Amino acid sequence: MEYLDIVDEYGNKTGEILDRETAHDLNKLHWEVTVYVVNKNGQLLLEKRSASKRYSPNKWAPCAGHVMSGEEVDVAACRELKEELGLDLPAADLVMMENGLLRRQKTNSRIARYFYVICNEDESFFKIQEEELTEVKWFDIDEVIEMVRRVDNPTCIHADRLFLLERLKKEVS
Predict the structure, then answer these.
(1) Domain ranges of the chain
(2) Which residues in the chain belong to E strands, given as ranges?
(3) pLDDT in tens, 84-101
(4) Which listed residue, of 51, 58, 61, 147, carries a Cα 20 to 30 Å from 131's Cα?
(5) 3-class SS at 81?
(6) Whole-structure pTM over 0.85, yes or no?
(7) What CATH number does domain 3-172 carry, 3.90.79.10, 3.30.420.240, 3.30.420.40, 3.20.20.70?
(8) Distance separating alpha carbons of residues 154 and 142, to the nearest angstrom
(9) Residue 168 phi, psi (nearest 5)
(10) CA–CA separation, 116 and 147 (whole Å)
(11) Rounded to whole angstroms, how far apart are CA atoms 13 and 92?
(12) How far out from the chain centre does Cα 54 lie?
Protein backbone atom coordinates (compact mmCIF):
# COMPACT_ATOMS: atom_id res chain seq x y z
CA MET A 1 0.00 0.00 0.00
CA GLU A 2 1.23 3.48 -0.86
CA TYR A 3 1.16 6.13 1.87
CA LEU A 4 1.21 9.85 1.16
CA ASP A 5 2.08 12.87 3.27
CA ILE A 6 -0.88 15.24 3.34
CA VAL A 7 0.14 18.84 2.70
CA ASP A 8 -1.35 22.33 2.83
CA GLU A 9 -1.80 24.54 -0.22
CA TYR A 10 1.87 25.61 0.06
CA GLY A 11 3.15 22.03 0.01
CA ASN A 12 4.00 21.91 3.73
CA LYS A 13 3.37 18.61 5.49
CA THR A 14 0.41 18.69 7.88
CA GLY A 15 1.55 15.63 9.83
CA GLU A 16 -1.29 13.53 8.42
CA ILE A 17 -0.35 10.41 6.44
CA LEU A 18 -2.97 8.51 4.45
CA ASP A 19 -3.01 5.65 2.01
CA ARG A 20 -3.30 6.83 -1.59
CA GLU A 21 -6.92 5.83 -2.18
CA THR A 22 -8.13 7.45 1.05
CA ALA A 23 -6.21 10.64 0.23
CA HIS A 24 -7.91 10.71 -3.18
CA ASP A 25 -11.37 9.89 -1.82
CA LEU A 26 -11.12 12.56 0.89
CA ASN A 27 -9.59 14.96 -1.64
CA LYS A 28 -6.56 15.65 0.56
CA LEU A 29 -3.68 17.59 -0.99
CA HIS A 30 -0.50 15.60 -1.59
CA TRP A 31 2.65 15.92 -3.71
CA GLU A 32 2.94 14.47 -7.19
CA VAL A 33 5.71 14.71 -9.78
CA THR A 34 5.63 15.00 -13.54
CA VAL A 35 8.69 14.37 -15.68
CA TYR A 36 8.62 15.37 -19.33
CA VAL A 37 10.98 13.06 -21.23
CA VAL A 38 12.21 14.88 -24.35
CA ASN A 39 14.70 14.09 -27.09
CA LYS A 40 17.10 16.08 -29.26
CA ASN A 41 14.45 16.22 -32.01
CA GLY A 42 12.13 18.28 -29.83
CA GLN A 43 9.80 15.37 -29.20
CA LEU A 44 7.99 14.46 -26.00
CA LEU A 45 7.58 10.87 -24.86
CA LEU A 46 4.04 10.09 -23.76
CA GLU A 47 2.76 6.96 -22.05
CA LYS A 48 -0.64 5.45 -22.82
CA ARG A 49 -2.35 4.72 -19.51
CA SER A 50 -3.99 1.32 -19.14
CA ALA A 51 -7.76 0.86 -19.28
CA SER A 52 -7.76 -0.16 -15.60
CA LYS A 53 -6.45 3.18 -14.28
CA ARG A 54 -8.83 4.99 -11.89
CA TYR A 55 -8.03 8.38 -13.38
CA SER A 56 -7.74 9.05 -17.12
CA PRO A 57 -7.74 5.48 -18.44
CA ASN A 58 -6.51 5.03 -22.02
CA LYS A 59 -5.18 8.59 -22.18
CA TRP A 60 -1.71 9.74 -23.14
CA ALA A 61 0.34 11.21 -20.29
CA PRO A 62 3.87 12.24 -19.37
CA CYS A 63 5.66 10.19 -16.75
CA ALA A 64 4.09 11.11 -13.41
CA GLY A 65 3.27 9.76 -10.00
CA HIS A 66 2.94 10.26 -6.28
CA VAL A 67 5.60 11.27 -3.81
CA MET A 68 5.52 8.62 -1.08
CA SER A 69 5.47 9.54 2.59
CA GLY A 70 8.97 10.60 3.65
CA GLU A 71 10.31 10.61 0.08
CA GLU A 72 12.07 13.59 -1.50
CA VAL A 73 10.38 14.93 -4.63
CA ASP A 74 13.40 14.48 -6.93
CA VAL A 75 13.85 10.92 -5.66
CA ALA A 76 10.17 10.27 -6.48
CA ALA A 77 10.71 11.61 -10.00
CA CYS A 78 13.63 9.24 -10.57
CA ARG A 79 11.67 6.34 -9.07
CA GLU A 80 8.74 7.00 -11.42
CA LEU A 81 11.06 7.08 -14.45
CA LYS A 82 12.53 3.74 -13.38
CA GLU A 83 9.17 2.09 -12.54
CA GLU A 84 7.20 3.29 -15.55
CA LEU A 85 9.86 3.39 -18.28
CA GLY A 86 12.85 1.42 -17.02
CA LEU A 87 14.85 4.65 -17.27
CA ASP A 88 17.51 4.76 -14.55
CA LEU A 89 18.77 8.34 -14.24
CA PRO A 90 20.37 10.28 -11.40
CA ALA A 91 18.47 13.22 -9.91
CA ALA A 92 21.21 15.50 -11.29
CA ASP A 93 19.81 14.85 -14.81
CA LEU A 94 16.43 16.35 -13.87
CA VAL A 95 15.76 19.96 -14.83
CA MET A 96 13.08 21.54 -12.65
CA MET A 97 10.50 23.59 -14.53
CA GLU A 98 7.87 24.45 -11.90
CA ASN A 99 7.42 23.78 -8.22
CA GLY A 100 4.18 23.74 -6.28
CA LEU A 101 1.55 23.99 -9.02
CA LEU A 102 -1.77 23.41 -7.28
CA ARG A 103 -4.68 21.55 -8.87
CA ARG A 104 -7.98 21.48 -6.97
CA GLN A 105 -10.52 18.93 -8.17
CA LYS A 106 -13.48 16.95 -6.76
CA THR A 107 -11.09 14.09 -6.04
CA ASN A 108 -7.31 13.77 -6.28
CA SER A 109 -6.40 17.39 -5.59
CA ARG A 110 -2.62 17.73 -5.60
CA ILE A 111 0.47 19.88 -5.73
CA ALA A 112 3.02 19.02 -8.38
CA ARG A 113 6.64 19.64 -9.21
CA TYR A 114 7.47 19.50 -12.92
CA PHE A 115 10.80 18.39 -14.36
CA TYR A 116 12.15 17.52 -17.75
CA VAL A 117 14.95 15.19 -18.75
CA ILE A 118 16.69 14.59 -22.07
CA CYS A 119 16.66 11.03 -23.39
CA ASN A 120 17.48 10.12 -26.98
CA GLU A 121 16.46 6.47 -26.93
CA ASP A 122 14.12 4.80 -29.40
CA GLU A 123 10.65 3.78 -28.18
CA SER A 124 11.72 0.12 -28.14
CA PHE A 125 14.34 0.94 -25.47
CA PHE A 126 11.78 1.62 -22.75
CA LYS A 127 10.60 -1.17 -20.45
CA ILE A 128 7.07 -0.08 -19.62
CA GLN A 129 5.23 -0.90 -16.41
CA GLU A 130 2.65 -3.19 -18.03
CA GLU A 131 0.10 -3.04 -15.19
CA GLU A 132 -0.13 0.75 -15.62
CA LEU A 133 0.78 1.43 -19.27
CA THR A 134 0.09 -0.09 -22.67
CA GLU A 135 2.65 1.74 -24.82
CA VAL A 136 4.94 4.73 -25.18
CA LYS A 137 5.36 6.97 -28.20
CA TRP A 138 7.38 10.03 -29.19
CA PHE A 139 5.24 13.00 -30.26
CA ASP A 140 6.29 16.36 -31.63
CA ILE A 141 5.66 18.89 -28.86
CA ASP A 142 3.48 20.95 -31.22
CA GLU A 143 1.36 17.84 -31.84
CA VAL A 144 0.90 17.36 -28.09
CA ILE A 145 -0.11 21.02 -27.71
CA GLU A 146 -2.76 20.53 -30.41
CA MET A 147 -4.00 17.34 -28.72
CA VAL A 148 -4.46 19.21 -25.43
CA ARG A 149 -6.41 21.97 -27.18
CA ARG A 150 -8.90 19.51 -28.70
CA VAL A 151 -12.40 19.21 -27.22
CA ASP A 152 -11.85 15.45 -26.97
CA ASN A 153 -8.36 15.85 -25.45
CA PRO A 154 -6.77 12.36 -25.59
CA THR A 155 -4.16 13.32 -22.98
CA CYS A 156 -4.05 13.82 -19.20
CA ILE A 157 -2.49 17.23 -19.75
CA HIS A 158 -4.84 20.06 -18.77
CA ALA A 159 -5.07 23.20 -20.91
CA ASP A 160 -3.87 25.34 -17.99
CA ARG A 161 -0.53 23.49 -18.21
CA LEU A 162 0.07 24.36 -21.87
CA PHE A 163 2.53 27.04 -20.77
CA LEU A 164 4.82 24.23 -19.59
CA LEU A 165 4.79 22.62 -23.04
CA GLU A 166 5.45 26.00 -24.70
CA ARG A 167 8.39 26.56 -22.36
CA LEU A 168 9.64 23.03 -22.90
CA LYS A 169 9.54 23.56 -26.67
CA LYS A 170 11.77 26.65 -26.31
CA GLU A 171 14.19 25.00 -23.90
CA VAL A 172 14.86 21.89 -25.96
CA SER A 173 14.90 23.38 -29.47
Answers:
(1) 3-172
(2) 3-7, 13-19, 31-38, 43-49, 60-61, 63-66, 95-103, 110-118, 133-140
(3) 999 999 999 999 999 999
(4) 147
(5) helix
(6) yes
(7) 3.90.79.10
(8) 15
(9) -60, -40
(10) 20
(11) 25
(12) 15
